Amino acid sequence: MVQQLYGGAITTTIPVGLVDVSKFREIPDTQEVFISETQDDARLDQSIIFDLLEEVIAPTNEEALSIHLSEISEISKPETTKISTVHNPHLNIDAHLTAFIQAPPTKDKYSTVTMVALIKLDRASTDVVITVNVPFQGELAISQVEAALLNTTEIPSITSGYKMLTTATESYNIKDWSLFG
Q1: pLDDT, position 146
Q2: Is 49 in contact with 32 (CB distance < 8 Å)?
Q3: At CA 175, angle to CA 174 and CA 177, rounded to 5?
């Protein structure tokens, strides 16, 4: 479904069944957060976060993404998947995507697979960071996450989380550039 962000200045597409967290908790003005309200599908407890951040100046977009990852990860240098790109036709730019495991996985505890997209808005000196968090129970290696993202292994929660991230990234559209001042 098409979702308005930041008072309608931006639109994107997110799955039906996600709830706007700002309806029951305070969220910073530069952030939009949605969580799954269903408990019986592959999106169990998944969340998607849209952040408008100060532009990181780096030699490459991959390096800028790595800097943002270090700021959102609980791990100082998380092991990530290969960085891929998706094209956003509305902004006519390529966004860079990667994923990492947020907490060390164990057999009896949940870890979180975090998938991140970076859209560089040079015109607004802003980086858009879209984050999807997917809880996962059991042991999981980064190579398994990468295989799920490449559709060579079936892990439904990771596959649905990656689809949520790519759809939101490809459909991200700025309707009102005055949001950026």
Answers
A1: 76
A2: yes
A3: 70
Whose tokens are 């931006």? That residue is: 10
Question: Given the DSSP bridges, would you call strands 10-13 and 84-88 parallel, antiparallel or unpaired?
Answer: unpaired
List the one residue out of 170, 150, 35, 28 whose CA is nearest residue 99.
Answer: 150
* Helix (H) / strand (E) containing 158: helix 156-171
Residue 180, domain member (yes or no) = no
Torsion over CA: 46, 48, 54, 56 (sign): positive
- Its domain, for residue 153, covers 2-175
Its pTM stands at 0.88
Do residues 180 and 7 touch, judged by C-beta distance below 8 A? no
Does residue 50 lie within any of the structural domains? Answer: yes
Report the percentage of the chain scoring pLDDT > 70: 86
Tell me the three state secondary structure of residue 140: coil
